[in-house]
Amino acid sequence: MSRVVLKGRGQVTIPVKVRKALGLDAGDLLEVEVSRGKIVLIPLQVVQRPREGEEGRSPQEAQKG
């Protein structure tokens, strides 16, 4: 079990071993809830929807324009 410190602006740093175990990267979204007096962080999977005109193209092709 790891310990973290609550910073002045309400921030905590998730330990590297936890981030690696869950495959979390900077910018990933987490849902926060309170359950039985505990803070629970749930990683969210975001599905990127194609923009107009990008349907059927790979992400690499879409980025190139």
Describe the structure.
It is a single chain. The protein has 65 residues and is α+β, with helices and mostly antiparallel strands. It has a domain at 1-45: Pemi-like Protein 1, Chain: D, CATH 2.10.260. The protein is 20% helix and 18% strand. The protein is built from 2 helices and 2 strands, in the order H-E-E-H. The protein has a two-stranded antiparallel ribbon. The longest helix is centred in the N-terminal third of the chain and has 7 residues, at 16-22. The chain is elongated and about 45 Å long. 0% of the residues are buried. The model has no long low-confidence stretch (mean pLDDT 85).
User: Which of globular, elongated, flat, extended, rod-shaped describes the shape?
Assistant: elongated
Order of helices and strands: HEEH
Strand content: 15-25%
Sequence stretches where pLDDT stays below 50 over 5 or more residues: none
Largest sheet descriptor: 2 strands, antiparallel
Brief account:
With about 60 residues, the chain is of the alpha+beta class. It contains 2 helices and 2 strands. The longest helix is centred in the first third of the chain and has 7 residues, at about 15-20.
